[in-house]
Design goal:
By secondary structure, this protein is α+β, with helices and mostly antiparallel strands. The chain contains 12 helices and 14 strands. The longest helix is centred in the C-terminal third of the chain and has 33 residues, at about 325-355.
């Protein structure tokens, strides 16, 4: 208990660099992208591509996601257990509004570089509760044998009534709660596992925490803001031209206005400063286009992802055009599949422990929808040919086509097929009515 109390007292001094990085990334996402403080009255443009790119990638990532539970074997009781597990996960998803929670969490994870879920049992409601705690209030201590997994976790958050701060300290076997730094509760872990899934946005090799989507685009985005502001000022000045007087000692009596006539001394001259001459604007625009391309390249999000294409693309041509984005989304989906499997296993274990049902061995799987638009009739024909040739099972084809419950649909197909064969057999045995 004393060790945990000392740890809670030191939380504010731990991971300062990580917490500062979180704050800076969050401010950048919200539009605070200029390093230097502007002069009073200075107009500066902020083109918040960071926000748009993060939300665009997240939208592609979260397209058509489906949770599937695979049966342990082909026995009827195993098939029924898998269907019950899928139904239980569907109820948990609906009760916790997981579609919206997961989308919001993905945006937060893409910005900060790390995300988290907490899976607990709500005693009053008698159901699984899934939340997404702020990683800015989470501290982790990795396992010695596996630096990608936490052995101990501290979670700090404000109390619901706003009167103080709570800190939970978890291990696989113990739990302690502190309110405003004072011990409030301590005992064994009621779940038998750490009820948190802390995961990286994109993994840094052999690290527990990850990398933000914003890191590669910080400098190009700042430079784009600066260059666009500079061009804006040039265009503004060109609309309010600057008069230049040469070899003139005083200009007190020179007035500016329509029809004004100036009397200049001998050898003096006056002219309008042309800030846009000699292709100056073109150079600025070329530089902006170069920054623009660099921004999209580093974000791995081609302009085609925004619908900006000079020709109609479908099928393989569209996938080639979007290849950088597809690869980025594939990397994220690889990590998120493991996250959702762990979260599902925790939820099912809690249902077993407190609900009395059995769902082991928790063989859940995430089926992701296609990122690019697909020709449904063509995909159906390909799956049909694969089934007919014995290269794929009917269940596998259903999963690839996005069927919500492949096992139930396969059972229905079997029932219909048996009924059809009975009807066909009955017809063969009927007399044809001829003498």
């Amino acid at each position: 208990m004393q060790d945990d109390a000392a740890l809670v007292a030191r939380l504010a001094t731990l991971d300062r660099e990580r917490m500062r990085g979180y704050r800076e990334l969050l401010e950048f996402y919200r539009g605070q992208q200029w390093r230097e403080v502007g002069r009073r009255g200075e107009r500066r443009l902020t083109l918040n591509y960071a926000k748009v790119l993060v939300e665009k990638v997240t939208s592609y990532l979260m397209t058509d996601r489906l949770m599937v539970v695979d049966p342990e074997d082909e026995r009827p009781e195993s098939l029924e257990a898998a269907r019950r597990a899928e139904a239980a996960l569907a109820r948990i998803s609906e009760a916790n509004d997981l579609e919206a929670l997961d989308f919001d969490t993905e945006i937060d994870t893409a910005v900060l570089g790390d995300g988290a879920y907490k899976v607990t049992w709500d005693v009053e409601a008698a159901e699984v509760r899934i939340t997404a705690p702020d990683v800015q209030g989470i501290w982790l201590w990795p396992r010695a044998d596996d630096p990608t997994q936490p052995a101990k976790l501290a979670h700090q958050y404000p109390l619901a009534d706003g009167t103080g701060t709570a800190v939970e300290v978890w291990t696989a076997t113990t739990f302690a709660l502190f309110i405003d730094g004072k011990p409030a509760r301590r005992g064994p872990n009621p779940y038998g596992f750490l009820p948190y899934v802390v995961f990286p946005n994109l993994r840094a090799p052999k690290q527990l925490l990850g990398v933000s989507d914003l890191v590669p685009i910080l400098e190009p985005a700042r430079e784009l803001n600066r260059a666009m502001t500079q061009l804006s000022r040039l265009l503004e000045l060109s609309g309010n031209p600057i008069a230049v007087l040469e070899n003139v000692d005083r200009a007190d009596e020179i007035t500016v206005g329509p029809g004004a006539v100036w009397e200049l001394p001998e050898r003096a001259r006056a002219y309008i400063l042309d800030l846009l001459g000699n292709g100056g604007v073109g150079l600025h625009i070329d530089y902006l286009n170069a920054l623009y391309r660099a921004l999209h390249d580093l974000a791995e999000t081609p302009r085609t992802a925004f619908g900006d294409t000079s020709r109609a693309l479908t099928g393989v041509a569209l996938e080639i055009e979007l290849q950088p984005l597809l690869q980025k989304v594939a990397r994220k989906r690889l990590l998120r599949s493991a996250v959702y499997r762990r979260r599902n296993a925790m939820a099912l274990r809690l249902l077993e422990r407190f609900g009395g049902d059995r769902f082991a061995p928790y063989r859940t799987r995430v089926v992701w929808g296609p990122i690019t638009p697909k020709d449904g009739s063509r995909q159906l024909a390909e799956e049909r040919a694969a089934v007919a040739s014995g290269l794929r099972s009917r269940r596998g084809a259903m999963v690839r086509l996005g069927t919500a419950d492949p096992e139930r649909e396969f059972t229905r197909w079997l029932e219909e097929e048996e009924a059809r064969q009975r009807v066909a057999g009955g017809r063969k045995g009927e007399p044809d009515g001829r003498a």
